Amino acid sequence: LIVIVIALALGLSLSHRNEGFKATFIARCEGFHGKSKGYDCQKIWSAFEQAYVGQDPCKVPVEAYDPLIAAAPFEPACNRMMFWSKTQDFVHDFTEKKDCFVTLEDTLLGFTLDGLTWCGKEGSSETFTTGCPGWSQCEKNPVRSFWIRASDGFAASACGDVTAMLNGSIDTPFSPTSIFGSIEVKRFNSTTVKTLTVVLVTQESPTTNCTNASLKDLQKELDQGIKYTCKDVPESKINECSSRPDVPCGACW
Ligand code: N1C
């Protein structure tokens, strides 16, 4: 009897967890107040799920999310797009307070899946949220492949003047193995993207500035014709700007 009770409890908690993930997905999707309304969140869920359900969680290719991107395409937000690397919390704190930039997390898919973990299992039709491979544990894991595919699509939709916030407190602000370095920068197309402004966020006593060698590598990766500028800006200046509604975004750096 004890065994049956334990098995039942386990089964229940597992199916709950699975339903919990889908419920979170749908709730976030429906709660997203993006520009275009009328998303079919059930349809988007199905397109999402088919990417990894029933698959070995180390064998989910980036392309598995193509149908998802097709179901919820990125809308270009010219002159307002914000990219980042190793500055996640700082950037989102800033974009929350000042409504001038759009990050991937401000799009339906980025908003819906931010901070979540998911994977499938061979021979199962469920979504699991525990026991999934870590980011670097195997290359083709469902979470990593999603962020690569989404970042690729988001960068492909970039247009006009594009901004990227990089971390001026580390030795290599531009890492060629990061998603920003390996996917997004390569995707910027000079027919639509006019300029890239790197905002190098520094501490009071900066460890790095715009002459950093890694930023030369960034320029080399950029499509010819995209004008590059870099500004080192103290964190305090950006914080001050975001706390003052009267200061226009263009004056933050
Ligand atoms: O590898 P990164 O940063 O350079 O990726 C950041 C870059 C941004 O410009 C975004 O457009 O790629 C996009 N992106 C996300 O929007 C995102 N949200 C959450 C990439 N990764 C994202 N995450 C998670 O952050 C993801 O699970 C991964 O683990 C980190 C990548 O952070 P990073 O190395 O600082």
Observed structural traits:
40% helix, 4-stranded parallel sheet, alpha/beta, 253 residues, binds N1-cyclic inosine 5'-diphosphoribose
Quick structural overview:
The chain is of the alpha/beta class. Helices cover 40% and strands 12% of the residues.
Topology (SSEs and partners):
Blueprint: H1 2-31, H2 41-49, H3 66-71, E1 82-85, H4 88-97, H5 108-113, H6 142-156, E2 160-167, H7 179-187, E3 193-202, H8 213-221, E4 227-234, H9 235-242
Parallel strand pairs: 1-2, 2-3, 3-4
Helix pairs in contact: 6-7
The structure holds N1-cyclic inosine 5'-diphosphoribose.
The site of N1-cyclic inosine 5'-diphosphoribose has 17 residues, from strand 1, helix 6 and helix 7.
- Secondary-structure element order, as H and E? HHHEHHHEHEHEH
- From the N-terminal CA to the C-terminal CA, the straight-line distance is 67 Å
- Kindly state the mean pLDDT as a whole number? 93
Parts with pLDDT < 50 across at least 5 consecutive residues: none
Strand content bin: 5-15%
DSSP, total strands: 4
Helix content: 40-55%
- Radius of gyration in whole Å, from Cα? 20 Å
**How many separate helices?**
9
